[in-house]
Design brief:
Structural class: alpha/beta
Distance between the termini: 61 Å
Mean pLDDT: 84
Helix content: 25-40%
Strand order of the largest sheet: 2-3-8-5-6
Order of helices and strands: HEHEHEEEEEEHE
Strand content: 25-35%
Largest sheet: 5 strands, mixed
Number of helices: 4
Number of strands: 9
Shape: globular
């Protein structure tokens, strides 16, 4: 009985190691953002960020908007006057995705980052999930934006 218990403990610990290493590897995947988007508009002024993707009827597949703030801070967006269902990824100063949210058209609810970020990318609803981009992924070839 003791041998069987030890074997079960080893299997359990092996499973935990596998689970944590899988999460760690997934979180540290580098994503080449240039290869994922065919068109990424840049909103790096106050007025461009304020307008965002408002008043548009469509957002082409693999297109999005990159928001760039002057300094890292808790950032918030909303969907006022935005009829396209969107997802947003907040990106910190280390170019790592810190949060991903799905957003509801026309909502005035603020969707805020959980920690200071310098960037955000809005794309069609579900785009990040469809492209296997998750929290913790690091973006490469991103720094020149």
């Amino acid at each position: 009985m003791r041998k069987q218990s030890k074997l079960l403990d080893q299997r359990f610990y092996s499973f935990l190691i596998f689970l944590f290493s899988s999460f760690y590897l997934q979180a540290n995947i580098e994503v080449n953002i240039e290869k994922r988007f065919s068109n990424l508009e840049i909103a790096d002024t106050h007025n461009e960020r304020k307008r965002g993707l408002m008043y548009r009827n469509i957002l082409e597949a693999n297109s999005g908007m990159l928001f760039v703030w002057e300094e890292a801070d808790i950032q918030c967006v909303w969907m006022r006057n935005t009829k396209i269902p969107l997802s947003i990824a907040y990106i910190d100063i280390n170019e790592e995705i810190s949060n991903i949210y799905d957003m509801v058209p026309y909502s005035t609810k603020l969707i805020c980052s959980k920690k200071p970020v310098k960037y955000a990318i809005e794309a069609n609803l579900g785009w990040f999930k469809k492209n296997n981009i998750t929290i913790g992924n690091k973006l490469n070839h991103f720094h020149h934006y």
